[in-house]
Structures are given as C-alpha cells and as structure tokens.
Amino acid sequence: MSVQGSQGQEATLNWNQWLKPTQEVMAFVPRALAMRAHALPLKFERNKVVFAISDPVDYRRLQQLQYAMGRDILVVRVPPAALNQALKETYGHSAAPEVAELVKSVTQPAKSPVLATSKPHLGVDWKIRETKVIAITSGKGGVGKSTITANLAISLAQYGFKVGIIDADFGLANVHLMMGVEPGRTMADVILSGHDPLFSMTVCPTGVQLLAGSSGVPELIDLDYKTLEKHGSGYERFRGSFHYLLVDTAAGVSESVLSLVERADETIFIVTPEPSSVHDAFIAANFLHNRRPLSKIGCLVNQASDDQEAVKVFAKFRTFFDLAVEVKTSYLGFVREDSSVTTALKTRTPLVLGQPKSRAAQDINQITRRLAEIDGHLDPEPVRAKGFWGWLTQSPKQQA
After folding, report:
1. Does the residue 106 lie in any domain?
2. Is 324 within 8 Å of 126 (Cβ atoms)?
3. What is the pLDDT of residues 121-161, one digit of tens each?
4. Structure pTM?
5. Are residues 208 and 118 in contact, defined by beta-carbon separation less than 8 angstroms?
6. 138 neighbors 268 (Cβ within 8 angstroms)
7. What does the pLDDT look like over 285-338, one tens digit per residue?
8. Cα–Cα dist 80/82, whole Å
9. Are residues 218 and 255 in the same domain?
10. Are residues 160 and 208 in the same domain?
C-alpha cells in the first residue's frame, strides 16, 4: 500500500479503518516493544511482520524491534494522528509501556496463586439498596493507603458485598499491582477515549471490580471531580451497581484530592504512628471540614506496634481535631505492623487471600466487620482500652 501522507479528517478516518492488527500478530509482538518503537503491528506477510509507523522515524528503535523478534519487518508510513489513535485503541493510554515488564521482572512468585475468578467464601447475596461511597485518603504518602484499600475491598467481597474501586491516584496508580491484575482499560481510556467507566473495570480476586488509574499520563495528573462528572465518571454512575465504592485517592490537599474526597459519603484517613503522618492527616481533615462541614470522617491507624499505640495515636488526633472544628471523628481500628504485608506486595497477592491468618489480615477483617456492621454480637469498638484512652475511642453516644 502506497502512502501519500494524507491529511484531514476524512483521510484519518480511512486510515483508522485500515489500521486494525490481526490477532496472530498481536499475540506475537510484545506490547512493550511495539509501544517503545511507536510502531503498530498489522499482519504477517510471508515471514515478515508489517508495522505502521509515522515520521519522525526512530530507526534505532526499529532495529531493536527487529532484533528482539528475530524476524524482518516491513514498514508503512501513516499520518501521525492516525497512528497515535490506532495505538491508543489497540494498547490503551500509557506513558511508559515498558513499566509492565519492569513490574513483572521484580515480582516474586506467590506460594499459592490467587485467581481473579475466586468466589466469596460466604456466598451471601445482599440486595443493593444503596451504594456507600468511601474515600480512602491520607495527608502523607507512604502510609499504606492503597494496600488498605485493596484488602478492605476483598474482605468486604468475602462477606458477599459487591465492591468497586476507583484508583484515583491519577499520577501514580498502583492498586492493580496489589490486586495482581493487568487492566485492559484504565481511567485514561475513559477520559481520553470516551469509554464507559462501568465497562472499563477489571475483575479482581473475589469479584471486586477495579477502575484502574493511569500512571504518568500528563492529561490526568490534576484530574478533579468536575472533570470526572463531565465524562460520565462521577460517583452517581456507579450507584446501584455496588454496595461499596472505595475511592483510593492520592495523598495531600491538592484540589484534585479534595474535590474527590468532599463528594464521598464518608472519608477514611489512614495515619501511622509517625508524627508527620498525624500532622498531615490533621491538616487534610481540616481542609475537608472547611469545604464540607458535615463530612463523616473516620480514622484508621496503620503500621501500629499494638492496639495501645494505635489508640493513643487516634486519641491525640481526635482530641485536637474535635477541639479545632467541633466535629466528632470515628475510630475504625488499626492494622499492626506485619512482615506479611511486604511479602504480599512483592508477590502481588492480596494479603487477606494469600496470608489470611497473618496479624494484619485479621486486623483488616475486624475493620471490615465494624465498617459493614456485619456481626451484631461483635464488640463495636476495635480495642478494649481502659481509662481515658478507652473513653476517647468510644462513639459520642457511648461517651454520654
């Protein structure tokens, strides 16, 4: 096929109809190699692979591509706009396609692989009367927010609830890594290509559905709630499809984060015993209160050495926050520091599935039961601390 370097909308449409790779060539050419060379594999022609490319041509990348495949290649020049669109439709939006291979190279094998088709162990079919949207956020990064989100979602699903996750850390999304899945579509496909968010979700272990974020896509880094609504991806789009919709935000107090948090039904702040974590959570909670005074705020202490340390961290946070804004915060519980968490992250196996008897997994299960009010006989308080610290961790009704 000769190339004329056509311009204009009509020419682009004609190219888009032609730039459709065959299944055979898609299975043969690694995605990362094609994206790195900015070349779209189209078909086999005898013993050669036909690629679509556009100017400017990176011949060094093409030579690397040919060497890696061990086959000669034929190239067809097409308009840049047509090639870019075809690459996005074929592979999705990714600023760093080679990152998938990097992750695979550092992932350790799990002892017991978890399949995405795993079913909830209780098999309870709860009717969806309403969807509770819970934003999970933090003032400081590195506190285990995404780890909590992924495992809390799976734990809820194990009790029969239908659970969805929006990975709203649009700059550095990684919930899919913790779930051990490779998303077919991401938020970039929803915002930049107009795909329906519900049909862009990836099925994770125990049936949890994840709308994966995108890492390193410049157009999405400062994405806010208004933009989500504009593209049909506001929280209302998910109501009625899930019992719980967990929104894993980025850390901090940017407009992007605050706009997502203030529209949720409830917000859980993840803190650790580190003073900087408590400080930043306090500042972030104040920002949220100023924007939405009636916000329902909960606190979960992660990486605690024991229950007493967790209670003291929350008690101090609650004391200062309640005095500042006169709003009662709730204590959801704690997750102990546990080496099993590191193992789960390295193997990309959710902790509550891969190591359900670990201390951290048991803590997450307790938090799940309190959050969902599953067991009426369960002590509603996460710890049985006595004296002043125990009083501070009670609900306002219990204090009275």
Report:
1. no
2. no
3. 454 555 677 899 999 999 999 999 999 999 999 999 999 99
4. 0.75
5. no
6. no
7. 989 988 998 889 999 999 999 999 999 999 888 877 766 676 678 999 999 999
8. 5
9. yes
10. yes
Structural domain total, the chain: 2
Q: Two tokens at 11?
A: 């020419």
Closest CA to 211 of 220, 219, 199, 226: 199
Q: 142 and 29, same structural domain?
A: no
Among 74, 91, 108, the domain-final residue is 91
For residue 380, the SS3 value is coil
Residues 219 and 347 in one domain: yes
Rounded Cα gap, residues 314 and 299, in angstroms: 7
CATH number of the domain residue 368 falls in: 3.40.50.300
Question: How far apart are the C-alpha atoms of 120 and 99, rounded to whole Å?
Answer: 31
Question: Same domain, yes or no, for 289 and 166?
Answer: yes
pLDDT at 379 over 60: no
Identify the three-state secondary structure at position 360.
helix
Beta bridge mates, 264? none
Among the listed residues 10, 29, 122, 24, the one whose alpha carbon sits nearest the alpha carbon of residue 70? 29
Question: Which residue, 21, 33, 26, is CA-closest to 69?
Answer: 33
Do 59 and 160 share a domain, yes or no? no
Q: Which residues pair with 342 in a beta bridge?
A: none
Q: Provide the 3-class DSSP secondary structure of residue 164.
A: strand
Query: Are residue 51 and residue 195 in the same domain, yes or no?
Result: no
User: Are 163 and 157 spatial neighbours (Cβ–Cβ below 8 Å)?
Assistant: yes
Q: How does DSSP classify residue 368?
A: H
Residue for token digits 């609900």?
395
Residue with tokens 């979602």: 153
Containing structural domain, residue 122: 117-399
